[in-house]
Design a protein that fits this description.
Layout lengths: L1 E6 L8 H9 L2 E6 L15 E4 L15 H13 L4 E4 L1 H9 L3 E4 L5 E6 L20 E6 L1 E5 L5 E5 L5 E7 L2 E4 L7 H18 L3 H10 L1 H18 L2
Parallel strand pairs: 1-2, 1-3, 3-4, 4-11
Antiparallel strand pairs: 5-8, 6-7, 9-10, 10-11
Helix pairs in contact: 1-6, 2-3, 4-5
Length: 234
């Protein structure tokens, strides 16, 4: 049985749909919760690694004791060419671990269903080449990768040039979007952001409804990402 290690940073940021898709593809997903005092295992004892999102920042090493060790875990995975996917915070942790820069987005929070702006490089990518067609993804983030580390390849960006997808090595990728979520997973995130959304004139409930209504679209768009990661193991 193929074993995938999923590093979870917060109880409200689970593997959700992505974990289910991996399991449907024949994987066993083992969730490590360092925020709940789980010890981080040796990632290279697994067949693949997924690092999930969370409300903390990629530079919060002093606030959260496990952030630094997760970065080292990612450096080890990178050195071993372990198939790895970072989602939102996970993507930012990869960038920071390998020498890139993560900062608060000066344009404000990215939130809701956004178009993915594929670059020319995406067409030749072993995972994203098959996905580099018009599609939307859910983004819900305050921070972004502002400088990619040396050797990384930009695969998708917003019209403003903000990184959406990147390849960080032969078998390591990061996505700023959230392929794993639905409106139920998003609900507690939305509740925390209602005040700031109201200030910015954002209709939080309408955002959640748009994600709910797009469920079939999002399944079709991002289930192949899980299948592509599994294909790397073969």
């Amino acid at each position: 049985m193929t074993r995938v290690l999923a590093v979870e940073h917060d109880a409200e940021c689970p593997p959700a749909f992505f974990g289910s898709w991996l399991e449907a593809a024949g994987c066993t997903v083992e969730v490590c919760r360092p925020y709940a005092s789980d010890a981080l295992p040796d990632a290279t004892a697994y067949d693949a690694l997924v690092v999930l999102g969370g409300p903390m920042g990629a530079n919060d090493d002093e606030k959260h004791a496990w952030i630094g060790p997760v970065k080292q875990l990612l450096r080890d995975a990178h050195a071993a060419a372990l198939p790895t996917l970072g989602i939102c915070l996970g993507h930012q942790l990869i960038a920071a671990a390998l020498g890139g820069t993560v900062e608060r987005n000066p344009r404000g929070q990215q939130v809701g269903l956004l178009d993915v702006g594929w670059t020319r490089a995406a067409a030749g990518d072993t995972i994203f080449g098959a996905l580099a067609t018009p599609r939307r993804g859910v983004q819900w983030n305050d921070d972004i990768v502002t400088t990619l580390p040396d050797g990384a390849t930009l695969l998708a960006e917003t019209p403003a040039g903000e990184v959406q997808v990147a390849r960080y090595g032969e078998r390591m990728w990061g996505v700023q979007l959230h392929p794993e979520v639905d409106d139920v997973v998003l609900a507690p995130w939305a509740d925390e952001d209602r005040g700031s959304h109201q200030t910015r004139g954002i209709d939080t409930d309408a955002l959640l409804e748009s994600v709910r209504a797009a469920r079939a679209e999002l399944d079709a768009a991002w289930r192949p990402l899980a299948a592509g990661l599994v294909e790397q193991l073969r």
